[in-house]
Amino acid sequence: MLEQRIQQHFIDSADLKYQAAQTLSTPIAAAVQAMLACVTSGGKVLACGNGASAAEAQQFAAFCVAGFERERPELAAMALTADSTLLTAGPGGAQDPGSQQFARQVRALGQAGDLLLALSVSGNDANLLAATEAAHERDMTVVVLTGRNGGQLGAVLRETDVLISVPHDRAARVREVHALVLHCLCDGVDAQLLGEQEIPL
């Protein structure tokens, strides 16, 4: 019984990835081009997310800086800190709403030409909505990875932004596809910078 349940996870994950491949390839390609334009013009990528998505943002930034599967010069990217306790204390110790934790970092670090990568399963995280607004104030491009129908984040994006929305309701499935999308972004940028080539096994 347990083995069948485990096998079903693999089957469901594979089915979703197969179905999403055609739907998501166009927005992923647009996100690659946006990232490429950012890093080749001296900009940087700021990545953020909550919970498990925060870990994915950190991993993505590490791939940009340290390399993905091929040797290349470092790309300017960093994951914004998800520890709200570090960013909520205002002057005199007054507490600022945690919904501003990412927005403050975007306003402090972001510049025109930079890119914000926001990861959210629901698309309704208040702190990511605030970060998106801050990025727009800084004339940054925003790329959002979400699930379901894109949520509130999908609704506030501009024409120059990119929405990559995984068509599924289950958080675990959405995160699995998000991981693959991040790999596609890294590989796509490398292919554009270094040329396409087979990756040795």
From TrEMBL:
Top EC class for this record: isomerase
Chain segments annotated as transmembrane: none
GO molecular function terms attached to this record: carbohydrate derivative binding; isomerase activity
Known EC number: 5.3.1.28
GO biological process: carbohydrate derivative metabolic process
Name assigned to this protein: D-sedoheptulose 7-phosphate isomerase
PANTHER family: DNAA INITIATOR-ASSOCIATING PROTEIN DIAA, SEDOHEPTULOSE 7-PHOSPHATE ISOMERASE / DNAA INITIATOR-ASSOCIATING FACTOR FOR REPLICATION INITIATION
SIS domain sequence ranges: 35-199
InterPro entries: GmhA/DiaA, SIS_dom, SIS_dom_sf, SIS_GmhA/DiaA_subfam
Domain of life assignment: Bacteria
UniProt keywords, alphabetically: Isomerase
One family name in Pfam for this protein: SIS_2
SUPFAM superfamilies, A to Z: SIS domain (SSF53697)
Originating organism: Acidovorax soli
